[in-house]
Amino acid sequence: MTPPCINDVDLISKNMAVFKTQEEWFEQADYDIETAEALFNAGRYIYTVFMCHLSIEKALKGVYAKKFKKDPPKIHNLNYFIEETGLELPEKFQVFIDKLNGLSIPTRYPNEIKKLIREYKKDLTEKVLDETKELLLCLKQKMI
User: Fold this and answer.
1) Using CA atoms, how far apart are residues 82 and 56, in angstroms rounded to an integer?
2) CB–CB of 129/32 below 8 Å?
3) CA–CA separation, 115 vs 123, rounded Å?
């Protein structure tokens, strides 16, 4: 006898490979940039930068999902997604992506938290946050 909670629809939906859509990736990117803003307002600058990277990573994964109609690989290198999708960005954004890529590892896996706290002051973090918002808007406009 089949348990009452299991039916054919449940089994089919569990076995279907469904990838995240571009819209879902961008919705998550928006949520992450809002989280970055909240962390910035709370003075949690290291994690503000981390969330900025995550927001752009998810937006770029949205670009990848739209182009290839499948989930992107679970990697964090922003330039990988730019290269794979053939996305063309203004030079200022490419320079920023290179910078943000370099900031990802120390904020994701800090060796010395006190050192990072000293380095990531409000003014530096605010600049990263503002540039991330500008880049995210650019990526959204490219997907319209």
Assistant:
1) 11
2) no
3) 16
* Degrees to nearest 5, angle at CA 102 with 99 and 104: 110
Whether residue 6 is predicted with pLDDT greater than 80 in this model: the reply is no
How far apart are alpha carbons 136 and 12 in whole angstroms? 36
Q: What is the pTM of this model?
A: 0.85
Average pLDDT, the chain: 88
Domain 19-142 matching CATH 1.20.120.330: the answer reads yes
Residue ranges per domain, the chain?
Answer: 19-142
Per-residue model confidence as pLDDT tens digits over 41-78: 999 999 999 999 999 999 999 999 999 999 999 999 99
Joined tokens for residue 117: 């706290």
On the CB side of 58, how many CA atoms lie within 13 Å of its CA?
Answer: 19
Q: Helices (DSSP H) in the chain: which residue ranges?
A: 8-15, 22-41, 45-68, 78-85, 91-108, 113-119, 122-142
d(CA 73, CA 71): 7
